[in-house]
Amino acid sequence: MTWLITGGAGYIGSHVTKAMADAGRRVVVLDDLSTGTADRLPDGVPLEVGSVLDRDLLDRVIRQYDIGGILHIAGKKQVAESVEKPLFYYRENVDGLRVVLDAAVAAGVGRFLFSSSAAVYGMPDVDLVTEETPCLPMSPYGETKLAGEWLVSATGRAHAMATVSLRYFNVAGAVSPELGDDGIFNLVPMVFERLTAGQAPLVFGDDYTTPDGTCVRDYIHVEDVATAHVAAVARLEDDPSASLVLNIGRGEGVSVHDMVTAIRKITGHEDVEPEARARRAGDPARVVASAELIHRELGWTARHDIRAMVASAWAGWCLRHPEASA
How far apart are CA 113 and CA 120, in angstroms? Predict the structure, then answer.
């Protein structure tokens, strides 16, 4: 069976593509290269360049490669940007998913994995977020991911398609320096950028109702995210009736303050104190995963800790920014 991976040349997508190839799966990548690059892909993995909104392209790729399953990772993922550009996010994330599902149904593709997000939960008043925790997203980005889950589940029920939606928590790290995060959208690379420029790291909001006033998050190594996808693919291949929504996290909360402290220590910038700024729109105070269900359903458990995430991310950053390690 051949799997199509949309967005497979991006930061998370390239790790998933590598893990799938390493696990012996045949894969094809479809990516518009708006944030991804072709050199992230393993040797021998075909790349089709284009948008998931292009139905003719999807039809041709699914037919040409005899696609049996789809991993839909392509999408926009910046919370603050989604607040400013909700129409853009709904077009890219919801309509893009609809077009992919429409093409999959027309071609008889029977297996579908959707990249969702912990942003669907909003600001839950619980210590650990389970898959049964009510979803009340606080941003258009989170709304698009929740709408995507509904669309995937409804399509699966209507067309006998096995489905899994994976709710990512906060992804960091790299399996190798070459696959490090190129974007400056998440906390770890944002801190790296400031430190490299000789500037204080920024902390957005220090007045939340948390122990140190900063947001608390569940950080997960991107390699663990990738192995979770491989485990989900195995389930989809073995279980044609699968209909799962699962968290990908470690079940351990780390505050932004503590994460910045760890970054400063690991990168050798302990003398640079962070600077507090106003809260960003759409940021909840605390979101930490329960990872019990994914362990029960897929036998998957995260293996990497915060130090491994930061150290591997820093190695990738220094590869692309040699001045950082000077």
Answer: 17
Quick check: 167 and 118 in contact, CB under 8 A? Answer: yes
Residue spans of beta strands (DSSP E) within 157-242: 162-168, 170-172, 202-204, 216-217, 219-221
318 and 277 in a common domain: yes
Angle between helices 256-267 and 306-320 (to 10 degrees): 60
Active site residues: 141
- Structure tokens given for 243: 């209909």
Q: What's the CATH number where 34 sits?
A: 3.40.50.720
The answer on 268 and 146 residing in a single domain is: no
**Other beta carbons less than 10 A from residue 155's beta carbon:** 19
Say what the pTM is.
0.95
Each residue's pLDDT tens digit, 263-310: 999 999 999 999 999 998 778 899 999 999 999 999 999 999 999 999
Query: How many structural domains does the chain have?
Result: 2
Helices 96-107, 55-64: axis angle to 10 degrees equals: 40
Determine the length of the chain.
326
| 48 close to 54: Cβ distance less than 8 angstroms | no
Domain that holds residue 196: 174-217+251-325
Task: Assess whether 86 and 134 both reside in one domain.
Answer: yes
CA distance readout (Å), 232 to 144, 197, 269, 298, 319: 22, 40, 39, 7, 32
**CA atoms of 243 and 226, how far apart (whole Å):** 20
